[in-house]
Design goal:
42% of the residues lie in helices and 19% in strands. The protein has helices at residues 3-6, 12-23, 41-54, 66-73, 95-109, 124-131, 182-190, 212-221, 236-245, 253-270, 274-288, 296-310, 316-336; strands at 7-9, 26-28, 37-39, 59-65, 84-90, 132-139, 144-150, 158-165, 177-180, 204-207, 223-224, 249-250, 347-352, 366-371, 380-381. It starts with a helix and ends with a strand.
Length: 383
């Protein structure tokens, strides 16, 4: 694959959207008595990059990743964006460098504290407890990276990822884009003139899927496509169902069946225990549907259908257990948002699950199915 197929120069409209995202003030909410920080992504990137280099950590480049990058390239993409994913490329040679990166980020947060706060009395540990939602460190033969996610109560987290090596950097073509920010950051520092359609830096976008314009066509046509689906980790199943709910579809039924089987198998490999599955699903609903709570029911129904149709790696009991978990979460979502007037209005019917038609199935299991009022024309098994 030639590099020029992976890379494309952004248009003026795309550069303008990128500039707007980087200039937007994002609140970083503090826990307890800690105040909310107001942070512009471009300022945070500039400060973190400068502090890392002062501490002897060379930054190869900074990129915008994920749904925000997709939004820059195609505004009406059906995805919107929540998290701001910022990737810093650097060499994570040892544990000391991992620790240095974390110390730098926490130290940078001090810069954004209100002036009335006594900064000398704020420790790094206190800042971590107040403003960091998630800390991740991965150090294997193929993957060396760390993640620091800053808290936002509306789900719009600022996620700083520091990457030395990462074997797979995307799940689907529509979220495979990375936009290099270095030229825009340099323009900010050096130019005294505002950008315009005739005077702006050249900004490059790249698709980790492998072909930029093919991936961009998928984004415009809302097509779900990927490469090597067997490599997608367990959370890919949850992202796939999220795309389905947003109106994205695989290009063919054959591709759909193949992707779903791989992703279901990997989900149950990575989350084999029913308790792990519950925690993962609840965390996904909380992190990805803030402000869109009305979509959670449709999402769970879609997830249940995919798991029901495409899971081939589980025993019958384990399969039914997972399906019951998803059904329970769906009913809870309905109750929380008054999707039905009262639980007494739910009517239960009974029908055999599809797999009992298999002649090799040793006993007959009847799966209860719930349907609700006319506003929800979807079969949903009871627990």
């Amino acid at each position: 694959m030639y590099r020029d197929e992976r890379v494309s120069v952004l248009t003026w409209d795309q550069v303008r959207r990128l500039d707007s995202i980087l200039a937007e003030s994002v609140p970083i909410h503090g826990r307890g008595n800690f105040p909310t920080l107001s942070v512009q992504p471009r300022q945070l990137v500039q400060v973190v990059k400068a502090r890392l280099e002062e501490r002897g950590v060379e930054v190869r480049g900074v990129k915008l990743n994920g749904s925000a990058a997709s939004h820059v390239l195609h505004q009406d993409n059906g995805l919107g964006y929540k998290d701001l994913d910022l990737i810093f490329g650097l060499n994570l040679t040892d544990d000391k460098t991992f620790q240095r990166v974390k110390d730098v980020v926490l130290d940078c947060l001090v810069e954004f504290l209100p002036t009335e706060v006594s900064r000398e009395r704020v420790s790094a540990l206190a800042l971590k407890e107040a403003y960091v939602q998630k800390l991740v460190k991965v150090c294997t033969d193929t993957d060396r990276w760390s993640l620091i996610s800053l808290s936002n109560n509306t789900g719009k987290n600022v996620e700083l990822k520091f990457v030395d090596s990462l074997r797979r950097q995307f799940e689907f073509s529509v979220d495979s884009f990375q936009i290099t920010l270095d030229s825009l950051l340099l323009f900010d520092r050096c130019s005294q003139t505002e950008m315009s359609d005739t005077f702006h830096p050249s900004v490059q976008g790249e698709s980790m899927y492998g072909h930029f314009h093919e991936a961009l066509d998928h984004l415009r046509s809302r097509t779900i496509a990927t490469r090597s689906p067997e490599e997608i980790r367990g959370g890919g199943l949850l992202k796939y169902c999220h795309l389905l709910v947003r109106g994205f579809q695989p290009s063919s039924e054959m591709q759909m069946k193949q992707m779903q089987r791989y992703m279901c198998s990997r989900f149950f490999i990575d989350f084999s225990d029913i308790g792990e599955q519950r925690r993962k699903l609840e965390a996904y609903l909380q992190n990805h549907f803030a402000g869109m709570e009305h979509k959670r029911y449709d999402y769970l129904v879609t997830l249940r259908r995919v798991v029901d149709q495409s899971t081939v790696c589980l025993m019958g009991h384990e399969r039914r257990q997972t399906l019951a978990l998803i059904s329970t979460l769906a009913r809870r979502v309905m109750a929380e948002h008054n999707a039905v007037p009262a639980l007494s209005n739910i009517t239960c019917y009974y029908q055999p699950a599809p797999y009992v038609r298999d002649g090799n199935f040793s006993h007959y299991y009847v799966s209860p199915v719930t349907t609700v009022s006319n506003s929800y024309q979807t079969w949903l098994p009871c627990s």
